[in-house]
Amino acid sequence: MPEPSLLPALAGMLTLAVLPVASPALAAGAETDVVKVIERMTSAFAAKDVDTVLSTYEANAVVVGEPGQPASGTPALRALFESFIAVDPHFTYHGHEVIEAGDIALHLMPWSMTGKAPDGTVIEDGGLSVAVLRRQPDGRWLMVIDDPYGDHLMKR
Question: Which segment of the chain is annotated as a signal peptide (predicted)?
Answer without folding.
Answer: 1-27
